[in-house]
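Record 1 of the preview.
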Amino acid sequence: METDAVCGVHALHPERYRAAREAVPPEALVARASALLKALADPTRMRILLALSAGELCVCDLAHLLSMSDSAVSHQLRVLRDARLVAWRRQGRQVFYRLADDHVRGILEAALEHAAE
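->
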């Protein structure tokens, strides 16, 4: 029978503790990063981001590509906008979406690379 993986002796290791404390950023930043990862955690939103990694697309393009309604795509894009993962621009009556920046592209590439291992 396997025993629980807990400390048998309650003692702090000052150097390790200090390094760990310094590695944890302020709570507000952790919450924002967590929200970003939550937005990425949905397969539909991930597919939208991957499609946008090839360049700008409008809602109609994304809806057709993903076999979804315009409304469903718009809802997902709202989540991605709120997480600051996509940016948009208006051209006449159309709105075009793109990845917010190269950090988003890097996150996508790292996630796919790690998943492929």
